[in-house]
Amino acid sequence: MTDQQRDDWVSRLADEAIAYAKAKGTKVVCASGISPSGPIHLGNLREVMTPHLVADEIRRRGIEVEHIISWDDFDRFRKVPNVPGVDNSWEQHIGKPLTDVPPPQGSTATSWAEHFRDQLERSLDELGITYRGISQTGHYLSGAYTEQILFAMSQRGEIDKVLDQYRTLGPKKAKKPAKLSEDEAAAAAEAEEGSGAASEDDGRGESGYYPYKPYCSECGKDFTTVTAYDDATTEMTYTCRCGFTETVDLREFRHGKLVWKVDWPMRWAYEKVTFEPSGVDHQSPGSSYVVGKELAPMFGWERPLGPMYAFVGIKGMAKMSSSRGGVPTPADALQIMEPQLLRWLYARRKPAQSFSVAFDAEVERMYDEWDSLTKKVTSGKGQPGDVAAYTRAASTAIGTLPTTPRPVAYRTLASILDLTTGDEEQTLRIVSALDADDPVTSLDQLRPRLNCIEHWVDTQMSDEERTVVRTSPDTGRLASLTDEERDAIAILLNGKQSQLPKLEDVWSLDGLTHQVYGVPKVQRGLAADQIVKGDKELGAAQRQFFKLVYNLLVDKDTGPRLPTLLLAVGAERVRALLGG
């Protein structure tokens, strides 16, 4: 691999991660932490995508690496989110572990945590992400962390001293990028909340400092206060807001966890994590990542390499969020984006750069950029950076992601599906005419892209963007045509001598494109295929001609690309509506 090929953020972080692990005499372990406290959105996905891309680059080099996802399902249930199948009755579960909270109504999951974890896991599978999942509920309840808990309790005085250095600072609110739109800011605000664990108290109470938080054996909630602990016997006494008091042997008691700022560095040591990025909210003064640098050595480890990643904004989320509450999830994105495109959006930006995922008409531009990159790389014209970005999006070290055999332009298919309203026979009729030399013979050749666009048209296309073809000619407008307008329509439909043929004789996307752009040229005595630059008069004439045709076909000044619209309407109906 050349220096130029390595000159991208994934390769650089992979180099650093390999060197760091080698210096410690251990394999590379990349980690992510996700709290299934509600819908796991596209901001949370960066927590997974960043280490995945680095781990996958290392794996491609033939070096041993593991990517773990720690499911923080033993976090407390903090609040009732606005999601389908959930009402205010869930408030009775606030304070319980997420695995003890019932799932939303209608879910087949056994718990709240399982419901939202399963949603993300299905998306990760579609994205080609391989990992080892770790349930924190499972680890705590099994006693896997018992020795670490006892050690932390024995060192509570030293831990308290470290935390006390930062308490007066307090974790500052992370600053959001200045250029966020209202939609993007809403997504960033959701992302800032992060893990439920991230907002827990640090263990300081009226009775002293204890880095362990028990869940009450009576009510199952964490409204508890540790009042005493005996290092010699490991007996701990706690009281709960519900009135229950209990003394337990912490060596045997399982229903509790270390507070977050101690739990995280403990897990770094337990899993021997060498690389774990975190959001800006974790890296401000007094935050868990900063404090962890001083606490990790107590557990025999060091804070891993941890690049900061910025917020992921959402464009055009308003329509979606109004119906489902909250910001879009990876599953929502994968309904309108092929996995390669979604991977590419995360791979092409450095972790510290914020970016937005579009759900509005901007998604067409994202697809155009992706298709352009694909053509550049597959034709052998891509630069090393282009090849790296494409390769990371389209494949993993394990294999290539499923692709659409015939990737027709997103905007073209969106226009067609808008006009056919999902009629497969009509859709096939139109797309088969896009390329006369190599026609599409089955809609399966257009999937999964076609499925993504169908969903976008059904759920995201605004009423203003939709196109409705006239059912009958606009006789009043046809009667008022000027001589020049009538001549333009005649040339479009019937051609003119050797310059342009009849409309039916050029019935393909390329042919119709040449036809519609050729009409204003021929009217001015130019050759239909003549390249003309900087002619403002000709440009104005083209715009007026297009506006005329749109008026007569769809009663608007603009619409889908005119050649696509003509294909969709059909030659016979075009003639009828244009008075020809």
How would you describe this structure in keywords?
three-stranded antiparallel sheet; three-stranded parallel sheet; disordered N terminus; 14 strands; mainly alpha; 24 helices; 580 residues; Rossmann fold
Structural class by secondary-structure content: mainly alpha
- Quote the CATH topology of the largest domain: Rossmann fold
Biggest sheet strand order reads 1-2-3
- Radius of gyration, taken over Cα atoms and rounded to an integer in Å: 30 Å
Give a written overview of the molecule.
This protein has four domains: 3-193 and 258-309, HUPs (Rossmann fold), CATH 3.40.50; 204-256, no CATH class; 410-459, no CATH class; 475-577, Arc Repressor Mutant, subunit A (Orthogonal Bundle). It has helices at 3-6, 9-24, 42-60, 112-126, 136-142, 146-154, 156-167, 182-193, 260-271, 288-295, 318-324, 330-334, 339-347, 362-378, 384-394, 410-420, 424-431, 449-459, 475-479, 483-494, 509-523, 536-554, 562-569, 571-577, and strands at 28-34, 65-71, 132-135, 204-205, 208-209, 212-214, 224-230, 235-240, 245-249, 256-258, 278-279, 308-309, 312-315, 355-358. Helix 10 links the parallel strand 11 and strand 12. A three-stranded parallel beta sheet has the order 1-2-3. 45% of the residues lie in helices and 10% in strands. The protein has 24 helices and 14 strands. It is mainly alpha-helical.
Write a concise synopsis of the structure shown.
This protein is mainly alpha-helical. The protein folds into four domains: 3-193 and 258-309, Rossmann fold (3-Layer(aba) Sandwich), CATH 3.40.50; 204-256, no CATH class; 410-459, no CATH class; 475-577, Orthogonal Bundle (Arc Repressor Mutant, subunit A). Helix content is 45%, strand content 10%.
